[in-house]
Backbone:
């Protein structure tokens, strides 16, 4: 999967980000081939730490820094037509909802036509959700680049320099002949689907734990068959609003039980079950298996992911994991929890039913022995 590294990333300040990023493509990657580079960058400023202003109650979302942002972008991409706007009042990304995603996909797809790149500037807390969604749902003719910062431009010092570097890197990449959705952060360009936030303390706050399961869009994806299947469905028209489907994230813990899972998954398109390690959960006497069976029978897709940032699920590795699979849970393999939830929601929104979603995500056919009929 494509990862672009920025040379000179250890240097202070943001000037080094004007250098062209080096490309490191791994085996098995699928790419689109050359196309004309965008000559226009549409910038959607949604808020987030990047442009926050100090207040007596802490940093708050603000439009005060828009002029500084626009100046940095013009300096980074001389000759490009840059149009910066806020489709709604700037907000902390912790306040984003599936209704936000409905509006954002429409904004990005409208802006990204006629050789235009799109930059999405937002907070880091839900950036992995945004990037994963746009890798599947964006239809822009050029790259869609999502970026933000761990510190505000208004804060000064090294934090402001890091914020400026991210903007500069994103603008430079926006001029390249790439397609799909990417995250520009910490001197790296990462594929949108499969990225996750790993730290709040360092400038390089995002990583891709499983590159073979990552994708930027239809034309750029990792080598895993699951990534290929999702890429083949990317960019399809949404037949339903994303907000029409509920896909909760349920984290297991010692003492977790089936009643909690059943309540969380009621009337949902899917559930992301964030398990231990390679995909284990408390099952003895907990009712979790029964809850998974009932959810599956009712058409709720249950996908197991790992709470370990460096972990991958393998439900065949341990007998406990095998019990989850036998109950009907899908092995999330290398999917992050953010990517798994977005995938279920997107596949439902393009019109796939539960059986088709299960097949896309790699579920094997279930037998009567696997599901307890009600």
Residues:
């Amino acid at each position: 999967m494509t990862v672009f590294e920025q040379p000179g990333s250890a240097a202070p300040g943001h000037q080094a980000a004007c250098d062209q990023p080096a490309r490191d493509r791994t085996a098995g990657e699928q790419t689109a081939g050359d196309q004309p580079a965008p000559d226009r960058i549409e910038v959607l400023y949604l808020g987030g730490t990047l442009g926050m202003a100090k207040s007596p109650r802490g940093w708050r979302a603000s439009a005060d820094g828009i002029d500084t942002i626009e100046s940095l972008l013009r300096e980074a991409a001389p000759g490009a037509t840059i149009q910066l706007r806020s489709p709604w009042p700037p907000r902390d990304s912790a306040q984003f909802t599936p209704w936000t995603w409905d509006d954002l996909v429409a904004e990005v797809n409208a802006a990204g036509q006629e050789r235009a790149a799109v930059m999405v500037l937002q907070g880091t807390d839900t950036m992995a959700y945004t990037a994963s969604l746009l890798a599947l749902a964006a239809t822009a003719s050029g790259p869609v680049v999502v970026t933000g910062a761990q510190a505000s431009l208004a804060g000064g010092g090294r934090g402001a320099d890091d914020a400026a570097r991210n903007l500069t890197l994103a603008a430079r990449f926006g001029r390249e002949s790439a397609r799909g959705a990417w995250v520009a952060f910490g001197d790296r360009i990462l594929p949108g689907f499969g990225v996750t936030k790993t730290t709040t303390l360092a400038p390089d706050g995002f990583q891709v734990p499983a590159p073979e399961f990552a994708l930027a869009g239809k034309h750029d994806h990792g080598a895993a068959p699951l990534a290929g299947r999702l890429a083949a469905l990317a960019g399809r028209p949404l037949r339903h609003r994303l907000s029409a489907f509920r896909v909760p994230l349920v984290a297991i813990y010692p003492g977790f039980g089936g009643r909690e899972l059943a309540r969380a998954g009621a009337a949902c398109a899917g559930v992301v079950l964030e398990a231990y390690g390679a995909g284990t959960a408390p099952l003895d006497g907990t009712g979790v298996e029964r809850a998974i069976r009932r959810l599956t029978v009712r058409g709720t897709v249950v996908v197991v992911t790992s709470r370990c940032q460096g972990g991958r699920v393998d439900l065949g590795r341990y007998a406990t994991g095998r019990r989850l699979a036998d109950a009907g849970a899908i092995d999330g393999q290398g999917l992050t929890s953010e990517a798994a939830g977005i995938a279920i929601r997107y596949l439902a929104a393009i019109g796939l039913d539960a059986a088709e979603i299960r097949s896309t995500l790699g579920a094997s056919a279930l037998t009567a022995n696997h599901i307890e009929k009600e």
Observations:
- The first strand starts at residue 3 and ends at 5.
